[in-house]
C-alpha cells in the first residue's frame, strides 16, 4: 500500500460510497473550455488552458467575478453551450489510469460525482467518456446553486448514505468534505493545492490499494 494511503485506508475502509470531483480529478477539459469561452467572450487577451485550470472547481458566480464579467444568465447560457460544443468537437483528456481504476472500483463500490459545474456538464463527461454505467448518480452547483459541501450533503441524503469519501484536487474540495463531515483524499496530479495534513495519492490507481476490490 502507498505510504500516504495508510491512514485513509483505516479511516474509510468500511465505506462503499466514493464521491469524485470532476475537473482536475477525472479529466482535463481546460483546452476545449478555454476555446469555447474565448469564442463568446472575445477578450483582448484570450483565456488560456491554465487560466481555466485556475478557475476549475469554483462556482460560476465566482468565476464571473474573477473574470470581471457582469453576471448574466444569457451569457452563462452561451458560455455553457459553446464549451459543450467544443468538447463535442475535440473531446477532452482523462487523466492516466482513470478508466481502468473507475471500471475496477465500480465492481465493488458505489461511485458518484459532485462538481461545481453547470447542468449538463457531468452528463457530457459521462457520455463522451462512455462511463454512464459506472457512476450511480451525480449532482452539481447548477442543480443546487449551493456550495459544494451542501451539494455533497444533498447527494448523500438522497441516497441514504451514512458515510462516504470525497476525492478531489483543490482546497475547495477539501473544505467541501469537511463541511460534509466525510474524509477527503487529495489527488496531487490535479489543478490545485490543499492545506496539510491531508491524505493524498499521486496516481488514481492508488485508490485500488486504499479500496481493494477482489
Question: What do you see in this structure?
Answer:
- The chain is α/β, with parallel strands linked by helices.
- Helix content is 45%, strand content 14%.
- Strands 5-4-1-6-7-8 form a six-stranded parallel β-sheet, with helices on both faces.
- Helix 7 (121-128) links the parallel strand 4 and strand 5 (137-140).
- Helix 9 (148-158) packs across helix 10 (171-180).
- The longest helix is centred in the middle third of the chain and has 18 residues, at 73-90.
- The chain is globular and about 50 Å long.
- It starts with 5 loop residues before the first helix and ends with a helix.
- Mean pLDDT is 91; it is low at 1-7.
Amino acid at each position: 500500500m502507498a505510504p500516504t494511503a495508510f491512514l485513509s485506508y483505516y479511516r474509510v475502509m468500511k465505506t462503499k460510497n466514493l464521491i469524485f470531483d470532476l475537473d482536475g480529478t477525472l479529466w482535463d477539459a481546460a483546452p476545449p473550455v478555454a476555446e469555447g469561452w474565448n469564442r463568446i467572450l472575445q477578450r483582448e487577451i484570450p483565456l488560456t488552458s491554465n487560466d481555466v485550470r485556475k478557475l476549475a472547481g469554483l462556482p460560476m458566480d465566482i468565476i464571473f467575478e474573477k473574470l470581471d464579467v457582469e453576471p448574466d444568465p444569457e451569457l452563462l447560457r452561451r458560455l455553457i453551450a459553446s464549451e459543450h460544443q467544443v468538447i463535442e468537437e475535440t473531446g477532452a483528456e482523462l487523466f492516466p489510469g482513470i478508466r481502468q481504476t473507475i471500471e475496477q472500483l465500480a465492481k465493488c463500490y458505489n461511485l458518484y460525482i459532485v462538481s461545481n459545474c453547470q447542468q449538463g456538464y457531468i452528463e457530457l463527461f459521462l457520455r463522451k467518456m462512455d462511463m454512464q454505467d459506472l457512476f450511480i448518480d451525480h449532482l452539481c452547483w447548477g442543480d443546487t446553486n449551493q456550495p459544494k459541501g451542501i451539494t455533497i450533503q444533498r447527494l448523500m441524503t438522497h441516497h441514504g448514505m451514512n458515510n462516504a469519501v470525497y476525492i478531489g484536487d483543490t482546497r475547495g474540495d477539501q473544505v467541501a468534505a469537511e463541511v460534509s463531515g466525510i474524509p477527503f483524499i487529495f489527488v496531487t496530479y490535479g489543478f490545485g493545492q490543499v492545506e496539510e495534513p491531508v491524505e493524498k495519492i499521486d496516481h488514481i490507481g492508488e485508490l485500488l490499494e486504499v479500496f481493494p476490490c477482489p
